[in-house]
Amino acid sequence: MSVLQAIVLGIVQGLTEFLPISSSAHLIIVPWLFGWDEPGLAFDAAVHVGTLTAVLAYFWRDLLRMARALPRALRRPRALLRDPDPGHGWDAAAVDANAEARLALLIAIATVPGLLAGFFGQGAIERFFHDSDTRGRAITVSACLLIALGGLLWAAERSGAYQRRIGHLTWRDAVTIGLAQATALLPGISRSGATITAGLFQGLHRADAARFSFLLGVPLTAGAAAKAVSDAVDAGLTESEVRAFAAGGLAAALVGFLAIWRLLHYLQRASFTPFVLYRLVLGALLLILVGAGFR
Predict the structure, then answer these.
(1) What is the number of domains present in the chain?
(2) pTM of the entire structure?
(3) Residue 86: is its pLDDT beyond 60?
(4) Whose CA is closest to 218, among 10, 58, 6?
(5) I want to staple 156 with a disulfide (CB 3.0 to 4.6 A). Which of 56, 164, 200, 282 is the partner?
(6) How far does CA 174 lie from the centroid of its chain?
């Protein structure tokens, strides 16, 4: 892989990891369109470290507050996970005082389905989607999933109440969003797309759904980055590969940070409709290309 290819794919990863359009699908689609070789595990490590750096840099204050609140959360989890509703004995002051501890617990709960899915299914999914012998079928499946999640995101946009904030989430909401995150192992689903869609169906404001999605992604992204780095070290890297992958990781970090910042500001006043249209058009175009025998 050249440095230029690594930078292009790093930019693609930085954008698509946080926009609801599936980074894993794009890292399959872009090399396929240009006739490049599969990036491989080492590059996967570089871009995961890059996007993890982006989300840590953007949300470091939130993450630090949650880390400090974690001991309190572990001491009284049942009390903190009670529904934040005045009718259940809560008041606004109590909700605010325990917001970080409660959010840490909700993220921990929502992370469990993704961990289980990764443990039991990651190997089979990687073999199917990253095997050169099944590349055409992988593109077809990714295209269908792009269209399917696009339809669900559109439905969530149409039916969303947009009345709830992150502080209103219950443990049941966290389980639902966590199950949605588990489906994102499949390229074309999109981790952010699935969790944002689930959040909208739970009545969250758009920006709050995105914010919870990004925070929720930290544990799994960190785990994926650690595993990918370990695999890359075991495989060994040449000096040229180190340069290329460093460039790709840096591109992913910078573009990822900008993507988070821009999307959260955009969602204060606009909808996910452009992303729905993008998913539908891209999915349809890929199906046409595969049907026409492209590559």
Answers:
(1) 1
(2) 0.90
(3) no
(4) 58
(5) 200
(6) 15
